[in-house]
Each structure stands twice: as C-alpha cells, then as structure tokens.
Known about the structure:
Layout: H1 19-39, E1 46-50, E2 53-56, H2 57-73, E3 78-81, E4 85-87, E5 93-101, H3 103-107, E6 114-121, E7 124-132, E8 137-142, E9 146-149, E10 152-153, E11 166-169, H4 175-192, E12 195-198, H5 202-210, E13 216-220, H6 224-236, E14 240-242, E15 255-259, H7 264-271, H8 286-291
Parallel strand pairs: 3-5, 11-12, 11-13
Antiparallel strand pairs: 1-2, 3-4, 5-6, 6-7, 7-8, 8-9, 9-10, 13-15, 14-15
Helix pairs in contact: 1-2, 5-6
Amino acid sequence: MTSPTSPAFTVPRLPAAMRPFVVEGLRAARDAGEVLRRRFRTNLMVRTKGPQDIVTEADLEAQATIVKRLNRRFPDHGILAEEGLDTAPGAEWRWILDPLDGTKNFSRGIPTFCVSIAAEQEGRMKVGIVHDPLLKETFLGVAGHGAWLNGEPLEVSRVSRLKAAFLATGVPHRVQQFSTLVTKTFGKFATRALCVRGRGAGALDLCYVACGRLDGYWELDQSPWDVAAGSLILTEAGGRLSNFSGGPFDIFEGETVASNGRIHRQILEVIGRLPKLPQPPRMAGRSRRARRR
C-alpha cells in the first residue's frame, strides 16, 4: 500500500551524492526490462547451468545491457551478477544484480519476472531497484530515505494475525537437498495462514511485502542477487527481515524471512529451529570476503 504521510519520490529530494546511483540504476533496470519485454514469448535458447537451474539468451542480453551502462558510468565499481560475473571485489562500491529473476517463468511464457539491481557501499546496501517490465512497475529503495513504487511511497500491510496473512515462498534450485525442510515448512504455513503462493520471483515477492500485497515471505538457499535489492526496499517500507532463527538478515546466508513486522514472530514460530544450511557454493570465496572487508 502507499504511505499517506511520506512524500512522493523525486530525484532532487535525495542527497546530491546519491543521485547518480539512483538515476543510472533506474535507467539500467528499465533498459534491461525492455530487453526482457522484447524477448518475452519468443523463441529462446535455454541452457541448463545446474540441477533445476537454467539460463536463457534473454538473461545474458539483459545482464550485458546493465553491465555496459554501469561500467561506462562507474568504471571503478565492482559488479556481482548472477550470470558468472564478479569484478573488482575490493571496490568501495559494488552493484549486485539479477538481470532476470524468474527465469523459469520467463522461459515458459509466464508473466512473473523482473530485473533486480542493488548498489552497496562497503557492504552496506544503499540503493535497491526492482523493475517489472510487463506491469511497468518500478520499486525503488534508498537507504535512510524511503521506498517507492512508480514514485509513490510504500508502506507494509497492517495484518497482525498469521491466520489472516497472505504469504509467499519459493522452491530452491537444490531442492533435493532441502526437500524435507521445504515440504514440512510449506505444509505448516498452508494450514496456519490465509494463503500461501509460490510465484517464482523472490525479488518481486519482497517488493510485494513492501507494498502490502503480501504480508510475509520465506525462502531458503538463495543467492545475494535474489534478495539484495528487494531487502532494502522492504526495510525502507517499514518491514522486517531476519534469518530462520530470527537473527540478523545477511544476503549471503541463504535464509530469508520477510514480513510486515507484525507477524514476523509468528512466522518464526512456525518455521521452528532448522538445521544450519550449508553456504551456497557460488558464494564461497572472494565475493563474500569483499563484503566483509
């Protein structure tokens, strides 16, 4: 839902130092979104890159579009992207992006997918952008300044009981490894909440919690580009994030619990105490160390 008290978004309202990141990030997201819109429901080459994980020509073209713009405008910045890119990991500023979140949906002509772009400074998220090119919805969060949908300020829902909550989740790529946890947790929520949906685009799910369309969301075995932008947007909209045990949220940990804040404890009670998840293999090494420097 939109906030009745927060101001609408305009670039001049932001500190001058933040404006270039927001402007270029928005342009990059919309450029990539145009690639996806143009390639949607066309004949695409689809390649398997891991168990239950695929990539399409559109992913690669959209990523190249974003990277070209960011490199031209910010040549000293690092970029961590889903499709095999990790540059300048020791840079002060780093962009974390998923050029196409919801690749499986996209590859089958299902209209639920987005572009996700985040900018962090020394490991602290500063800008988050999630763009849905089909609905022409652009979610934006700027640390300390708010969150907006197409320029209108966001606010999380006011639902305070789990049994009245609309929830979402997703299925991890390594589902064989986590099948027991996934099925057990889904079953618990399906019997305790008003509704549970699996939409296949985690960045959008986080934004839907931020704008009140959803009241909560949980997922495991995620990568940083899945949650970096959406997590900032949700936080700036007044929501709450944690790992499965209620501890601090970390985009590299692979555990996401997101809510409007009012039902967060109830969600954690349903999840209960789960075994510690192994670190996603793609995050081992220099990417994580750079964030922790």
